[in-house]
Amino acid sequence: MPAQSPLMTIMIAAARKAGRGLNRDFGEVENLQVSRKGPADFVSNADHKAEQVIFEELSKARPGYGFLMEERGEVKGTDKTHRWIVDPLDGTLNFLHGLPHFAISMALEREGELVAGVVYNPVSNELFTAEKGRGAFLNDRRIRVAARTNLADALVVTGIAHKNRVNPGKGQFMAEYDRVVDATAGVHRFGSAALDLAWVAAGRFDAYWERSLAPWDIAAGALLVREAGGFAREIDGGDFMHTGNIVASNERLLPFLTKVVKG
User: Fold this and answer.
1) Nearest 5°: phi and psi at 30?
2) Does the reported pTM lie above 0.85?
3) pLDDT band at 214, cuts 50/70/90?
4) What single-letter DSSP state applies at residue 148?
């Protein structure tokens, strides 16, 4: 692993500090499952606390940078060229049910371009990092996208459209899902877009697609895939940071999967 940059040092420190709080809160979720109030409010509070930690740490280290965050929304900075894009708890439903598959996701955008990303699962202590032009890493090990070239052999991951998503509708998702299932070795759904993309970068999944995501769901993961030698693109050819529609894989599989998804 190349020497850690000052920027990455800042991002990792913020992720680990927020992760310690999430780990503590995650340890309490199981006890809350039987309470009358239920764990939903507790998890929402854990989400807000993690975001506050990240906001404070990044603001202190880089005063003036703007933010786009899941809970706060957009926070304008005096530095108009830099913006942090943060999801403090991606995989909330997993967290809520005591499943140890969730992550902190943060990325830095410089003049509209993604230049650094961190995806951190505090339970497994898996830290995925990437900087533009410097490669992608899992902890201290360089990672690469899988090398499969036959879509029929590929393991693909996606997210299932839920009831409060306007686009895509359930019908569109099921049609896409059926086509991809028929064309591949299998389709999994793990419940965290940030980790889905990180795992594509690490070669655990061969490809990923999903629609109508928020920028904080995919910014860091998309950079990880690109720095791991893969490609992350908008399904229909636009800008996935605006549409939330993304497909990611290696160079050979990407066009085939995109064609199947689009039908």
Assistant:
1) -60, -40
2) yes
3) very high
4) -
Neighbouring C-beta atoms of residue 66, cutoff 10 Å = 17
What is the helix (H) or strand (E) element at residue 179, kind and residue range? Answer: helix 170-183
Question: Are the beta carbons of 81 and 34 closer than 8 angstroms?
Answer: no
Give percent of the chain with pLDDT exceeding 90.
83
* pLDDT score of 34 more than 50: no
Please state, as a whole number, how many other Cβ atoms lie within 10 Å of the Cβ of residue 187: 20
Q: Containing H/E element for 25?
A: helix 6-32
Q: How far apart are alpha carbons 61 and 78 in whole angstroms? A: 14
β strands within the chain, DSSP E: 65-69, 73-75, 79-90, 103-110, 113-121, 126-131, 135-138, 141-142, 155-158, 186-188, 207-210, 231-234, 246-249
User: In the structure encoding, which two tokens stand for residue 191, read together?
Assistant: 């419940």
Residue ranges and CATH numbers for the domains of the chain are 6-142 (3.30.540.10), 151-262 (3.40.190.80)
In this structure, the dihedral spanned by the alpha carbons of residues 84, 74, 65 and 194, taken in order and rounded to 10 degrees, is: 0
C-alpha count within 13 angstroms, C-beta hemisphere, residue 57? 22
Residue 44 confidence class, pLDDT cut points 50, 70, 90: confident
User: To the nearest whole percent, how much of the chain has pLDDT over 70?
Assistant: 92
| Cα–Cα distance for residue pair 223/234, rounded to 1 Å | 13
Q: Are 90 and 217 in contact (CB under 8 A)?
A: yes
